[in-house]
Amino acid sequence: MASSIPLDTLKASLVHPPKVTSVKALVESTDFSSLIPSFYTFTHNLHDEPISDDPDDSIPIIDISLLVSSTPEEQSQVIHQLTKACSDWGCFMVINHGVSESLTKAMIASFQEFFDLPEEEKKEYQGNHVMDPIRCGTGFNPSINKANLWRDFLKCVTHPEFHSPNKPAGFSEIALEFSKRNQEVVTVLLKAISKSLGLEESYIDKAANFELGLQLLAANYYPACPEPEKAIGIPSHYDHGLLTILVNNGVSGLQVKHKEKWFNVNIHPNALFVQVADHLEILSNGKYKSIAHRALVNNKATRMSIALAHGPSLDTVIRPAPELADNESHPLMYVEMTYREFLELQQTGKLRSKFRLNSEQCKAF
Hints:
One of its GO terms (molecular function) is oxidoreductase activity. Keywords: Iron, Metal-binding, Oxidoreductase, Vitamin C. Pfam families: 2OG-FeII_Oxy, DIOX_N. This is Fe2OG dioxygenase domain-containing protein. It is built from ten helices and 14 strands. Helix 4 packs across helix 6 (about 170-195). Strand 1, helix 3 and strand 2 (about 90-95) form a beta-alpha-beta unit. It starts with 6 loop residues before the first helix and ends with a helix. It has helices spanning about 5-15, 25-30, 70-90, 100-115, 120, 170-195, 205, 280-285, 340-350, 360, and strands at about 60-65, 90-95, 135-140, 150-160, 215-220, 235, 245-250, 255-260, 260-265, 270-275, 295, 305-310, 315-320, 335-340.
């Protein structure tokens, strides 16, 4: 719908966006036009990058049920599939995982209710530091990003201590159950991934002190954008931690980078999308690479994605497994640091395009 406000006022609003605390509030404001404020313009041309349409090159699918209730031969086959998925793609879809579809839908609905709360109520949960147990906001660190991102978010630390907003009603109970069920999935996957690396089944669990590991439950809310070609939900980035699990509300927009091309991710119904993250790359000494991914926006429907990031305990020093690092064919590639130090360094912007933790690059820090 065309705006009826004066041209000078409209131009000013494009340069200086209305004082709103969320993208949702912006698009629902009475003076919002069919043009996005320049503050949200993402200058990188996404259309210059190749998009794969190869039907024979598809994201691997892992049947996790075969890891817990099958013959040794079938388990070995799935572990082999995990090896290829983690080394070739850095991501895969998980089916038969035991997280009920009704629970996932309830979690999505509860997050929607949260984002529908009045702006003043959501302000109660605004946080500024990466270690804040509950953070609600919009965009990324403005000192790092030159354009605001077309998304709102809510992030909660759900393990080793559980934190959650006390509204909307029932949110905490659903979030607790959803987090627990997905933690169980990751526990099974980490055991299988340890074996796929030729390590003891419990190696990653012990090395990362996973029993006290950080679990972060986050939702990203991307309202329909009138100029999606000018905005970005989240630019290309890599996740910290060991594994990230993703689900969404059925609206696509996630892309992953594979063989220098971007792939559209269409998550299968009731499947979990799993991404290799930075600290699994470190533990594997680079054998398994964390995957670059980004979130695009559209002009037709609101998209919501829910991510569960699973990482080491905050004060655990993460280093490559000694069995995967020697001084000859597989030299040590990453500098030791605690997970907490990694997260704080990431907030400064010094990790740049990737976490860059090999010894030569870290000398500049």
